[in-house]
Every structure is written in structure tokens, then in C-alpha cells.
């Protein structure tokens, strides 16, 4: 049976060592670069006409723009629009990386590596703290002090709020990572079943239709998950940024 | 592709590696430095491209379209108001014309009535005059006739007397007799 974990291997393409750190250009790096090129190329080409009545490609780019712009406006408010480029980049980057992982043979899913999702989540977490403190000063800590709570239970509530705040990057990164990892393992496992059954003789080959059906269904589901997890990650980013701008509950 | 990352640290990480005793690749710490660095580089580059080039371009078009639509809506609104004003104007002048027409009609009716009345009064007067003239003529004829009657009666009485008594009575005597009879 093909190893379902093999697809997550990181292979060096160009070996680079700097100050004892291994910072080689790997297949993961390649996919990140591909995502950047794909997104930039898509948005540049689609907007080359800049027509008032959009072409199909242009309206696709505009849909992406409006989708994230509305998300930012709804979750943060008009003053949140200065984070719009950041949120847009987060969404397009994750979404494209998830989608690039859906190509057969090519398939490598950058977002199925914990360090990448953790890096993104910690970046958001840091941004929230920096913006929150810069914007509200010490008022940012009102975030941990919900209004209308009796003074007796206040210490407990504050402790819970602090813990929940600190665990945000964990859940934020884990959700995306685990979804992508599990989805791709499941796909590979069912794909492996098909290969095994095909190799086991005619009768077994017929049974192979079952995992094949399953693999087709899972592929559709994974396409949905690829979008949904990008959306969820972006939505949470917006909500955390909203906390940074409006810490009072 | 080249050798896997974890071959350096673990013995068995070959092409099929990852499963047996080696580090689970998605959590392999030896790859962290490289992934974080490239993540930072690519994400940073993408952020720059998005915020400097792509998003302003899309935003410009979207904004322009929204502006254009707003302008068209404003224009439509303005035209609608204009239509309403024109309609109100039209209705007011229609009402004015109607009331004026009513006035003219009433005036005309009054004038016609007056004319008719005058004509009728004139006709009535004419009739009355003709009537009284006729009455006067009739009365005159009547008196004339009555006068003739006396004469005829006197003549007849003269003839009758002549036949009865064979002598002529003088007209004056007969007239006297008649006058005394009439009393």
C-alpha cells in the first residue's frame, strides 16, 4: 500500500545553509512561490482591461475583492479597511495553497504543515497585540475584563479570558493544519485501497469501485474544505483584529 | 526531487520514508527554519504586490463603477423629481383651465338668458300693444256699429210706422222716441 504520509515529505530543491540554519529552497517553498505567482498573475491579467463592464476573469477578481472587503466591513467595521490588504493576502494565500494541494501528482499542500499554519496564526496574533496596544494603549486589556460581571467572580473570568486569548493562535493554526492533513491522508488511503484491490484480481477489482466512489466524494469534499478552511481562517483573523480595534466587549 | 530533509537526522527516511520510526514530516522540526523563512518571504512579497498593485487596481474599478451607478441613480432621481414637478404643473394648469372654462360657460349662459329675457319682454310688449290696438279698433268699430244700429233702427221704425199708420213720422220724433225707450 502506498504510504499516505509520503505526500507530506519535504524535499530540498536547492540546499542553502545560513549561520547553521537549514533554509533550503524546498518543494514547500516552491509551492509558496507558485501561489504568489499564481495570485499575482491572476489578479494582474484579469484586471488588464479595467473595464466598467467586467469580463469573466475580471468579475472573478472583483468577486474575490468584494467578498473579503465585505467580510472586513462586517466583522471590523469601516475603520477595519486599513487591514483589508492584509486580510485579502491571508485569504488568497491560504486558499491558493489549499487548492494547489488538490492537484494530483503535483500535489503538495503547504498548509498541511503545522509550522506554516502556526506561522500565519502567530503573525495574526502578534498583529492583534501590536495594533491593540498601539490603538488603545492599556485600554486594550479591557478585552480581558468583560463588563457586567460581578466583582466576586471577576478574577476567575479574567483568568479564563486570558487563557482563551492565549490559546487563540493554537486553535487558529491547528484547525487549518488538521483539516488539510486529515483530508489528504484520507484521500491517499482510499486511493491506496483502489490500487490494492485492482492488483488483487478481477473480483477484487470490482469491489474497488467502492473506495473509488468514496475517493471521488472525498475529492469534492476536500475542494469544499480547501475553500472553507481558508474562509474560516480569514474570518477568525477579522474577528481577532476587531478585538484589537474595539477591545470593550 | 533531491533527498528528503529528514535523511540527515534519521536513518530510514528514504523515498518511502516518514512512516517507520522517522519524524512525522508535517511536524518535523528540521524543516521549520526553512518553511518559516520562505513563508515570511513569500507572504511578505504577496502582501506587497497585493497592497501596492493589485488591490488598488481592482478597488479603482469597483469604486468607479459604484460611483457611476450612484451618479446614474442620482440622475434618475432628479429626472423623477422633474417629472413630478411637470406633472403637478400640468395638473394645476388643467384645473385652472377647467375653472376658467366653467366661468366662461356660466357667463355665456347668463348672457344668453339675459338676451332671451329681453327678447321675450320685447315680444310680450309688442303682443300687448298689438292686442290693445286691436281692442281699441274693435271698440271703435263696435261704437260705430252701435251708432249705425240706432240709425238703422230709426229708419226701420220710420218705414214700419209708414206701413202701419200710413203717415210719415219725422226722423226727430223717432229719435226722441228711441232715446226714451233706451232709458
Spatially, the strands of the biggest sheet of chain A line up as: 1-4
Label the structural class of chain B.
mainly alpha
Oligomerization state: heterodimer
Overall domain count of chain A: 1
Q: Outline of chain A, from the CA principal axes? A: globular
**Which H/E pattern describes the elements of chain A?**
EEEEHHHHHHHH
What is the beta-strand fraction of chain B? under 5%
Query: How many individual helices of chain B?
Result: 2
Structural class given helices, strands, pairing of chain A?
A: mainly alpha
Strands of chain A, total number: 4
| Shape estimate of chain B | rod-shaped
Task: Compute the average pLDDT of chain B.
Answer: 81
* Secondary structure tally: strands of chain B: 0
- Gyration radius of chain A, to the nearest Å? 22 Å
Task: Return residue spans of chain B where pLDDT drops below 50 for at least 5 consecutive residues.
Answer: 1-20
- Spatial separation of the terminal alpha carbons of chain A: 53 Å
Question: How large a portion of the residues of chain A is in β-strands, by DSSP E?
Answer: under 5%
The end-to-end distance of chain B, rounded to whole angstroms, is 173 Å
Helix content of chain A: 55-70%
User: Any low-confidence stretches of chain A, pLDDT <50, length ≥5?
Assistant: none
Compressed to H and E, one letter per element, the order of chain B equals HH
Plain-language structure description:
The complex is a heterodimer of chains A (249) and B (183). Chain A is mainly α and 249 residues long. Chain A has one domain (6-245). Chain A has helices spanning 27-46, 56-75, 84-100, 114-136, 154-166, 168-198, 202-207, 209-245; strands at 12-14, 17-18, 21-22, 25-26. Chain B is mostly helical and 183 residues long. Chain B has one domain (37-182). Chain B has helices at 32-165, 171-182. In chain B, helix 1 crosses helix 2. Chain B is rod-shaped and about 195 Å long. The chains are: A mainly alpha (249), B mainly alpha (183). Chains A and B meet through strand 3, strand 4, helix 1, helix 2 and helix 3 of A and helix 1 of B.
Amino acid at each position: 500500500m502506498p504510504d499516505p504520509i509520503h505526500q507530506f515529505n519535504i524535499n530540498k530543491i536547492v540546499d542553502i545553509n545560513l549561520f547553521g540554519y537549514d533554509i533550503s529552497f524546498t518543494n514547500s517553498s516552491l509551492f509558496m512561490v507558485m501561489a504568489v505567482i499564481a495570485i499575482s498573475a491572476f489578479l494582474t491579467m484579469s484586471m488588464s482591461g479595467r473595464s466598467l463592464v467586467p469580463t469573466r476573469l475580471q468579475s472573478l477578481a472583483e468577486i474575490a475583492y468584494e467578498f473579503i472587503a465585505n467580510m472586513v466591513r462586517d466583522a471590523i467595521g469601516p475603520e477595519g479597511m486599513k487591514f483589508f490588504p492584509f486580510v485579502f493576502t491571508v485569504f488568497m494565500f491560504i486558499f491558493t495553497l489549499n487548492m494547489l494541494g488538490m492537484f494530483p501528482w503535483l500535489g503538495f499542500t503547504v498548509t498541511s504543515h503545522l509550522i506554516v499554519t502556526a506561522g500565519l496564526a502567530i503573525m495574526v496574533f502578534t498583529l492583534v497585540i501590536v495594533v491593540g496596544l498601539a490603538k488603545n494603549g492599556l485600554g486594550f486589556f479591557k478585552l480581558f475584563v468583560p463588563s457586567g460581571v460581578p466583582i466576586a467572580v471577576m478574577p476567575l473570568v479574567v483568568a479564563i479570558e486570558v487563557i482563551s486569548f492565549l490559546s487563540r493562535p493554537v486553535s487558529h493554526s491547528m484547525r487549518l493544519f488538521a483539516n488539510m492533513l486529515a483530508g489528504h491522508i484520507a484521500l491517499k488511503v482510499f486511493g491506496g485501497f483502489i490500487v490494492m484491490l485492482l492488483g488483487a484480481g478481477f473480483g477484487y477489482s470490482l469491489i474497488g469501485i467502492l473506495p473509488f466512489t468514496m475517493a471521488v466524494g472525498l475529492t469534492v469534499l476536500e475542494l469544499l474544505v480547501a475553500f472553507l478552511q481558508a474562509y474560516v481562517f480569514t474570518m477568525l483573523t477579522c474577528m481577532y483584529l476587531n478585538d484589537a480595534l474595539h477591545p470593550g466587549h | 526531487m533531491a533527498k528528503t530533509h529528514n535523511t540527515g537526522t534519521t536513518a530510514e527516511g528514504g523515498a518511502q520514508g516518514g512512516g517507520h520510526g522517522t519524524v512525522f514530516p508535517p511536524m518535523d522540526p528540521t524543516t521549520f527554519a526553512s518553511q518559516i523563512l520562505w513563508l515570511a518571504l513569500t507572504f511578505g512579497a504577496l502582501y506587497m504586490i497585493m497592497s501596492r498593485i493589485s488591490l488598488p487596481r481592482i478597488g479603482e474599478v469597483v469604486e468607479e463603477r459604484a460611483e457611476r451607478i450612484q451618479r446614474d441613480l442620482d440622475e434618475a432621481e432628479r429626472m423623477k423629481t422633474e417629472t413630478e414637478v411637470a406633472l403637478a404643473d400640468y395638473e394645476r394648469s388643467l384645473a385652472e383651465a377647467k375653472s376658467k372654462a366653467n366661468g366662461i360657460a356660466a357667463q355665456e349662459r347668463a348672457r344668453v338668458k339675459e338676451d332671451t329675457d329681453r327678447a321675450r319682454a320685447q315680444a310680450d310688449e309688442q303682443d300687448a300693444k298689438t292686442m290693445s290696438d286691436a281692442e281699441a279698433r274693435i271698440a271703435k268699430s263696435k261704437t260705430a256699429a252701435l251708432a249705425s244700429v240706432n240709425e238703422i233702427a230709426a229708419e226701420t221704425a220710420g218705414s214700419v210706422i209708414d206701413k202701419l199708420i200710413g203717415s210719415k213720422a219725422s226722423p226727430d220724433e223717432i229719435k226722441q222716441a228711441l232715446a226714451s225707450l233706451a232709458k
